[in-house]
Automatic annotation (TrEMBL):
<dbReference type="InterPro" id="IPR011053">
    <property type="entry name" value="Single_hybrid_motif"/>
</dbReference>
<dbReference type="Pfam" id="PF00364">
    <property type="entry name" value="Biotin_lipoyl"/>
</dbReference>
<feature type="compositionally biased region" description="Low complexity">
    <location>
        <begin position="110"/>
        <end position="128"/>
    </location>
</feature>
<dbReference type="InterPro" id="IPR001078">
    <property type="entry name" value="2-oxoacid_DH_actylTfrase"/>
</dbReference>
<dbReference type="InterPro" id="IPR004167">
    <property type="entry name" value="PSBD"/>
</dbReference>
<keyword id="KW-0012">Acyltransferase</keyword>
<dbReference type="InterPro" id="IPR045257">
    <property type="entry name" value="E2/Pdx1"/>
</dbReference>
<dbReference type="Pfam" id="PF00198">
    <property type="entry name" value="2-oxoacid_dh"/>
</dbReference>
<keyword id="KW-0450">Lipoyl</keyword>
<dbReference type="InterPro" id="IPR000089">
    <property type="entry name" value="Biotin_lipoyl"/>
</dbReference>
<feature type="domain" description="Lipoyl-binding">
    <location>
        <begin position="2"/>
        <end position="77"/>
    </location>
</feature>
<comment type="similarity">
    <text>Belongs to the 2-oxoacid dehydrogenase family.</text>
</comment>
<dbReference type="Pfam" id="PF02817">
    <property type="entry name" value="E3_binding"/>
</dbReference>
<dbReference type="InterPro" id="IPR023213">
    <property type="entry name" value="CAT-like_dom_sf"/>
</dbReference>
<feature type="region of interest" description="Disordered">
    <location>
        <begin position="84"/>
        <end position="133"/>
    </location>
</feature>
<feature type="compositionally biased region" description="Low complexity">
    <location>
        <begin position="84"/>
        <end position="100"/>
    </location>
</feature>
<keyword id="KW-0808">Transferase</keyword>
Length: 428
């Protein structure tokens, strides 16, 4: 008798998944609850665990290949003696398989798919078994480290590669994180060459490069956005006071992204419509101010890590959370709720010297704020003289089905008032 392992639906928008790597080889024994394969969803790598004991008899979708949600990706044999029979069955299935059809709509995970956890491994911690990332397991074999002797430093006690390296006495270098879009307007003039552009793989002229999984998800989301009637409102905000505050507290680990997210979140408390969303039944007022911030990924596409309850978290914790989210987003270790629970989005291209731009509204949200660079500007002062102030341009894009121009203008006015006159309140 054999059991099937299916391609799971790891998110509500997922229609297909890519096999990152099989953690078991053909013929290996598999225990119930043990990770057998790592699957790339829209924006994260997820462990897929077996619901059955048995032997991995046949791998139908190899590393790097893509399969529709719900399709069979491997077969398990109940006993070692049954492996040849199951492999014969797999060959018959492959020879009689019809031409590939369009990927089905996302459906709930089939019962025989196997449990799914993120690379953070949160759902397997309570089972009492060893919880380690596939890379950590591979390193442990190479370095001859007994995983059972290690205390995991990853989320929920998961053993990660750095734990194995430390146990083996190897130097562990901290990952270099270079946020692309979330970086904030500089508090003081900074050479623009300090901001690295996303790495681009060399291509051949005329070459067609297929979308990766994340880029495909972005394509679907942006196409869905075309059906939403939107409008845009711009505003000029003087940032001198905010820049001075940043100079004072950046040594404590505060990021400008954290300051901007906090300022937006506090202002949103007065404007619940701006972080509401449209439904066919009416306006859905969300209970949490979860600020998403767009981050470009090195291999293409973008992801929006979420600062949850940003209005309630102090600026120091918020900045630490942001650094952690960016680091884990680059290694595809975010859990779904850490990138799909946003109720308002920020997109910042100011680090590239962009003065102003319009952002595309994410599906399911009512607003997104585009932030340009903070630059010195010659302006007229209140006493009629000329002076120099640092200013940035912000543009908000809103769903016009639920938000109107006056609503967006009132929000921007209050945001400017907070940033210009009372930024110190962000540290309280």
């Amino acid at each position: 008798m054999s059991h099937e392992i299916f391609m799971p639906a790891l998110s509500s928008t997922m229609t297909e998944g890519k096999i990152v790597s099989w953690t078991k080889a053909t013929g290996d024994k598999v225990e119930k609850g043990e990770t057998v394969v790592v699957v790339e969803s829209d924006k994260a790598d997820m462990d897929v665990e077996s619901f059955y004991d048995g032997y991995l008899a046949a791998i139908l979708v190899a590393d790097g290949e893509v399969a529709p949600v719900g399709s069979t990706i491997a077969l398990l044999a109940e006993t070692e003696a049954e492996i040849p029979q199951v492999q014969e069955k797999a060959q018959q299935q492959s020879s009689s398989a019809p031409a590939p059809a369009a990927a089905p709509e996302p459906t709930p995970e089939p019962a025989a798919v196997g449990a799914v956890t993120s690379q953070n491994g949160s759902s397997s911690q309570s089972s009492g078994r060893l919880v380690a990332s596939p890379r950590a397991r591979k390193l442990a074999k190479q370095l001859k480290v007994d995983l059972s002797t290690l205390q995991g430093s990853g989320p929920y006690g998961r053993i990660v590669a750095e734990d194995v390296q430390q146990a083996a006495g190897q130097p562990v270098s901290a990952p270099t994180v270079t946020p692309v879009m979330p970086a904030a307007p500089a508090a003081a003039p900074v050479p623009m060459t300090a901001a690295a552009s996303p790495a681009t793989a060399p291509v051949t002229p005329g070459q067609v490069v297929p979308f990766n999984t994340l880029q495909g998800a972005v394509v679907r989301n942006m196409t869905a956005s075309l059906s939403v009637p939107v409008f845009r409102v711009g505003y000029t905000i003087t940032t001198d006071a905010l820049d001075n505050l940043y100079k004072q507290i950046k040594s404590k680990g505060v990021t400008m992204t954290g300051l901007l997210a906090k300022a937006v979140a506090v202002t949103l408390q007065k404007h619940p419509l701006l972080y509401a969303s449209y439904t066919e039944q009416g306006v859905k007022y969300n209970g949490n101010i979860n600020v998403s911030v767009a981050v470009a990924m090195p291999d293409g596409g973008l992801i929006t890590p979420v600062l949850q309850n940003a209005d309630q978290v102090d600026i120091y914790s918020l900045s630490r959370n942001w650094k952690d989210l960016v680091a884990r987003s680059r290694s595809k270790q975010l859990q779904p709720e850490e990138y799909n629970s946003g109720t308002f989005t920020l997109s910042n291209l100011g680090m590239f010297g962009v003065d102003r731009f319009d952002a595309i509204l994410p599906p399911g949200q009512g607003s997104i704020l585009a932030i340009g660079a903070s630059r010195p500007q010659v302006v007229a002062t209140d006493d009629g003289l000329m002076g120099v102030k640092r200013q940035m341009q912000v543009n908000i894009t809103c769903d016009h089905r639920i938000i109107y121009g006056a609503d967006a203008a009132a929000f921007l006015k209050d945001l400017a008032g907070l940033i210009e006159r009372n930024p110190q309140s962000l540290t309280l």
